[in-house]
Design a protein that fits this description.
Blueprint (H helix, E strand, L loop, with lengths): L3 E2 L5 H10 L6 H11 L13 H10 E2 L7 E4 L5 E6 L5 E8 L4 E4 L3 E3 L8 H5 L1 E4 L2 H9 L9 E4 L9 H12 L11 E5 L3 H10 L3 E5 L5 H7 L2 H4 L2 H8 L10 E7 L7 H11 L5 E6 L13 H13 L3 E4 L13 H9 L1
Parallel strand pairs: 1-2, 6-9, 9-10, 10-11, 11-12, 12-13, 13-14
Antiparallel strand pairs: 3-4, 4-5, 5-6, 7-8
Helix pairs in contact: 1-2, 5-6, 7-10, 11-12
The chain binds iron/sulfur cluster.
């Protein structure tokens, strides 16, 4: 059996390892420091541990940092990275530089079970969950690691379907022994898988982004099978239990699909659904994927849709598209790699 990784372990887990190896209790904090503050890639670099203890650790563990296997650079500065995750295949992470922000969009699963009609990752099927190590590694092993100001869980997979590992990664990002980031710097996106969402809301203070895409239940079901098990109205009931008037924010992602969800009637139903909720709606341009007959709404329709929402008191923006020239739709690059194999 291969060695276990230290990266992605919480302080509590490191404390157990230290105890098991009969090392002094204070070494747990030292190891966490080497992993998450100094970001070392080998146990031998942990120079304040004794040689004996480094040998002991080396027998059973590796740090587990892995560099991306490929990178595609867009002319707008966006970089799409590909990471190999063993038998499970490959995942994508996208680095998006903006004026004052450096955001990384991370993946939480390899492929996805949720089968959303418009999604390339969904077409790959499900290959496996990422470990907290594989999630944290995306942040730690890219060239721009030291620049990152924000993380969004909007890459491959449904984070609520891998909630244990996602919460562990969030703990490492926010804990004082880890990156010590404010939870305000982290946004977790979900299609509304309620059991996981309930835990995310209760066990973290991160921002939440709900993939909405159609406020009419029957039409949403045609796009997103999740609507059957966890209808949007139930998701919103849960969301409304929390206070989003202070630090924490909730937003709704809405991919604009020509003739499918972009009419004035759709905007009206959406306004009613979100009435009284302090939130933002992000309108997203659809990137066509092979084999799916969906098109992006035209510019004027998007502007009218946005204005209808804003006029109804709901802050709404049309997201600018990034990395158009490097397989912009999530899952495109890893699918291309799969096909090459
Ligand atoms: Fe999965 Fe998200 Fe794609 Fe839906 S949109 S299939 S939840 S990755």
């Amino acid at each position: 059996m291969g060695k276990d990784t230290l990266l992605g372990k919480t302080l509590t887990e490191i404390q157990l390892i230290v105890k098991e190896l009969d090392m002094p209790a204070f070494s747990a904090k030292q190891i966490a420091d080497w992993l998450y503050k100094k970001k070392v890639t080998s146990i031998d670099e942990m120079s304040n541990l004794s040689v004996k203890h480094r040998l002991l650790l080396n027998e059973k563990y590796v740090v587990g940092a892995v560099k991306p296997s490929d990178a595609h650079y867009s002319k707008d500065g966006t970089v799409k990275y590909l990471f190999n995750v063993g038998e499970k295949g490959a995942i994508e992470s996208v680095y998006i530089p903006d004026e004052d922000r450096h955001t990384l969009c991370v993946s939480s699963q390899v492929g996805c079970k949720m089968g959303c009609l418009f999604c390339m990752t969904g077409k790959q099927g499900f290959k496996g969950n990422l470990s907290a190590c594989e999630i944290i590694n995306q942040m730690q092993s890219i060239n721009e690691a030291s620049l990152l100001s924000n993380v969004v869980f909007m890459g491959m997979g449904e984070p609520m379907d891998n909630i244990d590992e996602v919460l562990k990664a969030i703990e490492i990002m926010t804990a004082s022994y880890g990156y010590a980031w404010s939870p305000k710097r982290i946004t977790v996106s979900t299609i509304g898988l309620l059991p996981g969402l309930k835990r995310l809301l209760a066990e973290s203070d991160c921002h939440v982004a709900i993939s909405l895409h159609n406020a009419k239940s029957a039409e949403r079901l045609a796009l997103m099978p999740v609507e059957k098990a966890y209808p949007l109205v139930q998701v919103l009931e849960e969301i409304r239990k929390y206070d989003f008037s202070h630090q924490r924010r909730v937003s709704f992602e809405y991919i604009m699909l020509k003739g499918v969800n972009d009419t004035p009637q759709h905007a009206k139903v959406l306004k009613l659904l979100l009435k009284g909720l302090l939130c933002r709606v992000n309108l997203i341009r659809y990137h066509a994927i092979p084999g799916v007959e969906l098109e992006c709404s035209d510019e004027l329709t998007m502007i009218n849709f946005r204005d209808a929402l804003t006029g109804g008191g709901i802050i709404s923006t049309i997201r600018s598209s990034r990395g158009e020239d490097i397989f912009a739709a999530c899952g495109m690059l890893s699918t291309e790699k799969l096909n090459q194999k």
